[in-house]
Amino acid sequence: MSVSRAIRQAFLAVEQSEGVGARVRRSIGTAKLRNFSPFLMLDHFSISPGAGFPDHPHRGQETITYILKGGVDHEDFAGNAGTIEAGDLQFMTAGKGIMHAEMPRQNPDGSPNEGMQLWVDLPEKLKKCDPRYRDLRASEIPSINVDDGKVHIKVISGQSHGVDSVKDLAYTPVWILDITICPGGKVTQPLPVGWNAFAYTLEGSTAFGTGKDQTTVGRFHNVVFEQKGDSISAEVSKDAKENGRIFLVAGLPLDQKVVQYGPFVLNTQEEVYQAMLDYQSHANGFERAAGWRSEIGKSMAH
Q1: I want to staple 94 with a disulfide (CB 3.0 to 4.6 A). Which of 58, 81, 203, 225 is the partner?
Q2: pLDDT tens string for the chain (302 positions)?
Q3: What pTM does this model have?
């Protein structure tokens, strides 16, 4: 018999400024939620034309970017460049070092570009791997309808109700599901035992849990689940005026220390100092950063 996970905490992701002119609702990586391995940061971002994330480095983590509206251009010092559109994802492994830019597409109607960005820690033995990208297009993502069509699940990574995702997207094992629940719909989603898990509420109000422990949560909240249990339960009241939509994520906890300074995520203070030195001296993975400037970031140069 399935054991539904209880809620450890649920809190509003408050909007703040980030990058150059971008607005983010950060939930993981704040005072409310740190050390939730393997997750380092979760941002629900909105980037208007003229704003963005110009040239910046990374080392030691993977970033997963999911576009909800619009599109985002990316470019790095290795010559990789492209655009991810609404419904697409990019899995980027920073490994030993990368420098890149992420800039919004200029939409004809001037509307902002919206999405989710999740930072995932890399196992210590992979901190010095070569950087890599994996773009996952919306058309590649399998989906399934359950509860007589009242629940629609995009299986970005992992599995749901007999449907498996595309494989080998990230080094650290992570499940990602985009779940839309119509009024009156309910779903029980199995999750790997012992993994940490959370749901970010994108739209509407969703009730999590079962029986007297059920809690209804509005949009823009991060719902953090206890490790005990093998599934989460979610439903939307039949009287609701709109659908509920959740970004459900689970990941394998890593038994290692996290020492982070901005975009550098290592295991010791000495490794962080070394990352800063390597970046400044263009060494040990940052050789190509010397003199490099992205084309897409030049629009923000003053």
Answers
A1: 58
A2: 789 999 999 999 999 988 778 899 999 999 999 989 999 999 999 998 888 889 999 999 999 999 999 999 999 999 889 899 999 999 999 999 999 999 988 888 888 999 999 999 999 999 999 999 999 999 999 999 999 999 999 999 999 999 999 998 999 999 999 999 999 999 999 999 999 999 999 999 999 999 898 999 999 999 999 999 999 999 999 999 999 999 999 999 999 999 999 999 999 999 999 999 999 999 999 999 999 999 988 876 54
A3: 0.96
The pair of three-digit structure tokens given for residue 71, joined into one six-digit string = 């599109």
